[in-house]
Amino acid sequence: MQTLWRNAAAMLALLAGANEALADEKEAWSVFVSDHAAPTITAIDAVSGEKIGTFPVKGPATLHRSASGRAVFAVQGTAGTVTAISSGIAFDDHGDHGDIDVAAPKLTGTEIAGEKPSHFVEHGGDFAAFFDGEGVARIISEKAVLQGVSDFREVKTAAPQHGVAVAYGSHVLLSEPNREKPDELPIGIKVVDEAGAPIGDLHACPDLHGEASSGNILVFACATGLLVVTDGEGAPEITHLPYADSLPDGKSTTLIGGRGLQYFLGNYGADKVVLIDPTAENDAFRLVDLPTRRVYFTADPVRPKFAYLFTEDGQLHQLDVVTGKIANSLKLTDPYSMDGHWSDPRPRVAVAGDRIVVTDPLVGVLHLVDAASFEKAGEIAVEGKPFNIVAVGGSGQTHETE
After folding, report:
1. Which positions make up the signal peptide (predicted)?
2. Are strands 89-93 and 98-102 parallel, antiparallel or unpaired?
3. In whole angstroms, what separates CA 393 from the centre of its chain?
């Protein structure tokens, strides 16, 4: 019997070695770019620069990617719909390594319709699209999206509002409208169960606007500070983190969450951002001054200690989130003034592996920046006015088959 087990173990080792020999390492990155005016999404191979797909939608879109990178969502506020695209890039975790599968991107067939979709939030593999014109959240799983079905559930709030919803396990976090002044921002967060029944009291959050996740913490931005959401016993636990007395008057209305490092980055005035660590006993807020007004900012998921900020003078800045200081700056575009309408075409930023990609809508190009040297690394021409952008991809093993 021992001989049999030894022979079997040897055979398994031999097969494992053969599989390793057949495995090739592959890296794939794609960027999805929406046009500022045209109802079009363009997919581009970020490694070769070649266009790999064009997808007609119903209106100009804001783009979101899923945490897994398998799905991209086009939220079309003026057209009243959310359209799902399969990125074509998927990973399979094998413990000691990961496999990568690469196919052509395609529309999945999933669409979620409603009045004025705006905030779109993923948590735990579920996506919640909030429809401002109805005060309704429609929630769908990534599995359903990739299967091409519109199998969503609805959770209603008390009135139409510029609101937000987050699917949180068997609960949903819902913004509460300002009933006395319906045109103003929500006043707090309610927790409801799967049937929509409220659990506990309203968590006050005046002028609620902006949310993000980092690690196991979810936050909402309020005029008074942040609501911090963590796992509790039987229901989410929500606490209030007030802005520090050392901060000037102001508030955050846009938040992003770090990946790899747990932190949050928010706007705070036109020419400042604030780094936030909700777990810190002291100095939870660190203010960072910028050389001029801020246009856009995003976190680096590959190099966790960095975030990137684009300012109206045409510069891209590399922010070291550990020191709280700007490490590098690079002039990329002509100036994009923040005067004018909030939705005017201005650059957006995404990270595709070792490249930082910046849209330049007024000249129709994507600027590539080498993330290691922080120097220009080329351009990709895109028809129209390339505006919103997301990147998906990574590296993994592929296996030849006989």
Report:
1. 1-23
2. antiparallel
3. 14
The string of DSSP letters for 260-276 reads SS--EEEE-STTEEEEE
Six-digit token pair at 64? 């979101």
Token pair, residue 90, equals: 């998927």
The DSSP call for residue 182 is T
CA dist., res. 178 & res. 159, Å (int): 9
Contact 206, 224 (CB under 8 A): yes
Tens-digit pLDDT profile for residues 361-398: 999 999 999 999 999 999 999 999 999 999 999 988 87
268 forms beta bridges with none
The pair phi, psi for residue 154, each rounded to 5°, is -110, 145
Confidence of residue 282 (pLDDT cuts 50, 70, 90): confident
Question: What CA–CA distance (Å, rounded) separates 278 from 241?
Answer: 7
In this structure, what are the phi and psi dihedrals at residue 106, rounded to the nearest 5 degrees?
-160, 155
What the block records as the tokens of 115 is 């009045």
DSSP states of 334-401: S---S-S-TTS----EEEETTEEEEEETTTTEEEEEETTTTEEEEEEE-SS-EEEEEEEEEEEEEE--
For the segment 235-253, the average pLDDT, to the nearest whole number, is 97
Short-list 272, 264, 271, 181, CA closest to 227: 264
Contact 165, 137 (CB under 8 A): yes
d(CA 262, CA 216): 9
Residue 247 in this model has a pLDDT that exceeds 70: yes
For the segment 97-116, what is each residue's pLDDT rounded down to a tens digit? 578 999 999 999 999 999 99
C-beta separation of 383 from 54 below 8 A: no
pTM > 0.90: yes or no: yes
CA dihedral 107, 91, 173, 261 (to 10 degrees): -130
Please give the Cα distance from 102 to 162 (Å, whole number): 37
Q: Could you tell me how many helices (H) and strands (E) the chain has, helices first?
A: 2, 34
Mention every residue, 6+ apart, whose C-beta is less than 8 A from residue 64. 72, 73, 75, 120, 122, 390
- Count of beta carbons in the 10 Å neighbourhood of residue 113: 16
What does the angle CA 151 – CA 156 – CA 159 come to, to the nearest 5 degrees? 140
